[in-house]
Amino acid sequence: MLSWAVVLGLLARQILAIPTISAKGSKLFTSDGAQFYIKGLAYQPTPNDPLANTNQCQLDVALMQTLGTNAIRVYHVDASLDHDGCMSAFANAGIYVWLDLDTFSTYILQNTSPTPQWTKSMFQAYADVMDTFQKYDNVAGFFVGNEMLTTGASSIAAPYVKAAAADMKAYRDKQGYRDIPIGYSAADIPALRPNLQNYLACGSDAADAVDFYSLNAYEWCGDSSYDESGYDILEKNASNYNIPIFFSETGCIVPEPRLFADQAAILGPEMDHTWSGAIIYEWVETTNNYGLISYGPPSGAEPTVSVQPEIGGYSVGGAPTPLNPGFTNLKNQWATLSPTGVSENAYTPSNTPPACPSYTSGYWEVSGNVALPTIGAAAVTGPTGSAGSGSGSSGTGSGYGSASQSSGSGSAKSTASHNGAARPTHAIMHSAGMAAVEGWFGRTENSNPALFWFVGIACAILGPAIAL
Predict the structure, then answer these.
(1) Which stretch is the leader sequence (predicted)?
(2) Looking at per-residue confidence, does 434 or 425 come out higher?
(3) Dihedrals φ, ψ of 231, to 5°?
């Protein structure tokens, strides 16, 4: 006989159920065997944790569905808060979450020091986020970093990025969590192509490689083309890649209006056999002018949520209103693009890991497949399987190849792509730590009353048949 606790758990699981995402070879698949292509949005309307305000998530989800969204990317969360309401809202809409594990104080390469680091305290902070979010079936993947490397000199941080991924994969497996893909989001820096991409996937031990690689690219601007934008080069570099690759940010804003014509290439026959989709930067309008929506009621309408604070003259909460023609242009692009790919059962991976790049002064300052500065197995598992209590060593910039520890920190982000397109302000903000915004404002925690209502009704119906 089933206990009430078991029944309640099963019912809640049914309500929140959504096929999970996994990586196999160079592709992403849902647990029902379909290849998964990302139609995503960067979603960070507040600096600390947008997934702790259920009311706001529900408002945003409703409009995202009209756009054709199936994924969001969130850069910063607070592992101590309640995320059930938001994660349920997104799951019920068929929207997955790609989540960064790091936060303002745990970047592998900070602007305050040229020395990369990966320490036990950083590992613990990453593990806290993983512990909190691994239970949600609509978590598609975790990033261990965003745009840490931006120059050839900053390539000395690459082994630390790879070590972070290796340690977090080991922790995931030791804890018995499902195989949530763990990877990295890279700035598209011509000087680092394709060395960083190849390095993070190279080596004979898959446990030391990232599960996916993603790129923040703003090269396709206005009425460009596959060849003119340089996407043909990106495709060439990825054509034999052995792990999934996708655009973790894209959406050039110069010149206006935003046409999003690159989506037809990414999700079409030119690239859909290699790339797994794209995440558009970004959902809400701020001072950088990348937003697809603005918050607050349309002119003359009554607000549907309480008045929210403003940052730089922009509201950070409220009713989302589309900003056109960008919103409609993206909607129209996605509406025509539905790649089917291959079924998981019919797919046999054949690509092998790339060779580890050799040291090249000023371009790639890591000598091949160097030993990774992981924190050690004891720190990953702890005495009872919990994170961070072991005696593993801390990685703090021992030097790779013949790299100088005085090389650049990577904090000075490029303000233009190789073809002159403006890069978003966040590229500077993330790398600089965003210390000035850490204490902006608190989050509103809300429960999901619909969930409890449904469970209550179901229990009333099933109760007579269940022994207590």
Answers:
(1) 1-17
(2) 425
(3) -65, -25
pLDDT grade for 61, boundaries at 50, 70 and 90? very high
β-strand partners of 247: 215, 278
Q: Is 21 helix (H, G, I), strand (E, B) or coil?
A: strand
With contact defined as beta carbons under 8 Å apart, do 141 and 98 qualify?
yes
Q: Which residues contact 336 (CB under 8 A, 6 or more apart)?
A: 264
Please state the domain extents for the chain. 4-465
Cis peptide leading into residue 298 (ω within 30°)? no
Fold of 4-465: TIM Barrel (3.20.20)
- Catalytic residue list: 147, 249
What are the tens digits of pLDDT across the range 394-433? Answer: 454 433 332 222 222 232 333 333 333 445 644 434 433 3
Q: Which residue has the higher pLDDT, 90 or 434?
A: 90
pLDDT digits (tens, 9 = 90+) for 326-359: 999 999 999 999 999 999 999 999 999 999 999 9
pLDDT for 27: 98
Q: How far apart are CA 75 and CA 44, in angstroms?
A: 7
Token pair recorded at residue 55: 């009311």
| Dihedral angle over CA of 69, 71, 75, 78, nearest 10 | 110
Give the 3-state secondary structure of residue 164.
helix
Angle at 370 between CA 367 and CA 373, to 5 degrees: 130
If one counts every other C-beta atom within 10 angstroms of the C-beta of residue 94, the result is 14
Fill in the DSSP letter of residue 154: G
On whether the CB atoms of residues 22 and 179 are closer than 8 A, the answer is yes
Work out the number of other CB atoms within 10 angstroms of the CB of residue 84.
19
pLDDT for 457 = 37
Q: Distance between CA 142 and CA 181 in Å, rounded?
A: 6
